[in-house]
Write a structure and sequence with these properties.
seven-stranded antiparallel beta sheet; disordered N terminus
């Protein structure tokens, strides 16, 4: 009896903590708000759009402008931006007018809005795109002598030259200083110490100093995950490479996903299965669509409906959903009869499907600025 009571109290404490520390954005009657694990509103649906909680704050839009809310739904940064991203290490990207910059948790613009586009900070770098047609000056090493803010510039001698970096991507630090000058037509976030970038020759990977670690000769590529990156080689087929650029799995797949915990989704024609890091089939292709495994289950599609399979490819939850998300902390969001809710690992409803839209649960987090390197 004492054991049963202890277990009950432990479970009750877990769900209380889960309810307090996790939120999912949801839509009802045309407005967005946030719900707890039981589906109860903790922030009423009174916003035109919303982001997710990160470092204790969530972006939200009111009257066409974006600001940031705290956990109680109070404005910490009042709406004044055209767009807004998520906080990472104490800063968030925002669009002020037509250009992007970064604000801190007090709403101060710590990196001025001067970029045509940008990403969030990852591994202490953020990718940014220069505004088209702007000129500046560099020395013979490529270091900037003047900011890139001029509409036109003439040749400059005595050890310097004018250049136009309009429309190209580079990487900055938290102070807005260039770590990698803009020279790429495309750029992804850093992942496992490398970033996928593109120039006219193709896709390759650079390190934090902008050095080519893997030359740009791929037709397409993706970020590194679990020590491997999927790239498209000859014949428009996908394979996987190591961080030194050598093939780990030769390109032989029509399509593929990223490796997670040693396995990855892959397809030969139109059907999907799972492979290991040797390229061997663990689950042979037989599904119209697959998601990655999380907590021992993967969403899979047969016919027009989705359910969940185990690592042996057996159905644990029969196909019955119009959409099936990934499991996290024993819950997955699904859509049935055009309404969204959450199920447990047995397929039982934890949150009834009553929402017109519902996002993933994320940890609210604390308003703590991480130490920046």
């Amino acid at each position: 009896m004492r054991t049963i009571l202890f277990t009950f109290l432990l479970c009750s404490s877990f769900f209380h903590i889960f309810s307090q520390n996790f939120r999912a954005k949801a839509r009802d009657r045309g407005g967005w708000g946030f719900v707890d694990h039981s589906g109860q509103w903790v922030i009423e649906p009174r916003y035109e759009d919303a982001g997710i909680f990160s470092e204790g704050l969530a972006a939200a839009r009111k009257d066409g402008q974006w600001g940031f809310l705290d956990q109680a739904g109070e404005w910490v940064i009042k709406p004044r931006f055209k767009e807004a991203g998520n906080f990472s290490s104490g800063v968030a990207k925002v669009r002020d007018g037509r250009l992007w910059g970064f604000v801190d948790i007090a709403g101060e613009m710590v990196i001025p809005a001067k970029y045509a586009d940008c990403g969030d900070f990852h591994e202490n770098l953020a990718r940014v795109k220069m505004e088209d047609g702007l000129w500046g000056f560099i020395d013979l090493t490529g270091a900037e002598l003047k900011d890139f803010k001029f509409d036109d510039a003439k040749d400059f001698h005595n050890g310097a030259a004018c250049v136009n970096k309009g429309g190209l991507w580079g990487y900055i630090d938290y102070l807005g200083n260039w770590l990698i000058l803009p020279r790429f037509t495309e750029a992804a976030n850093f992942s496992e110490g490398l970033a996928l970038v593109a120039i006219e020759a193709g896709y390759g990977y650079v390190d934090r100093e902008g050095n080519w670690i893997i030359k740009p000769f791929f037709a397409r590529g993706e970020d590194f995950h679990d020590g491997l990156a999927r790239v498209r080689g000859e014949g428009a087929r996908w394979g996987f490479i190591l961080p030194n650029g050598d093939w780990k799995i030769s390109p032989g797949f029509m399509d593929a996903g990223n490796f997670e915990n040693g396995i990855a989704r892959a397809s030969l024609q139109t059907e999907w299965g799972f492979i290991n890091k040797e390229g061997e089939w663990l689950i042979y292709p037989g599904y119209i669509a697959l998601d990655d495994f999380h907590e021992g289950l993967a969403a899979a599609q047969k016919g027009s409906r989705l359910g969940y399979i185990d690592p042996q490819g057996e159905w644990v939850i029969e196909p019955q959903f119009e959409y099936a998300g990934t499991f996290s902390r024993g819950m997955a969001r699904v859509r049935k009869a055009r309404k969204w809710g959450y199920i447990d690992t047995l397929g039982q409803w934890l949150i009834d499907p009553v929402f017109s839209d519902l996002d993933e649960f994320v940890e609210v987090g604390n308003e703590i600025v991480e130490e920046k390197e």
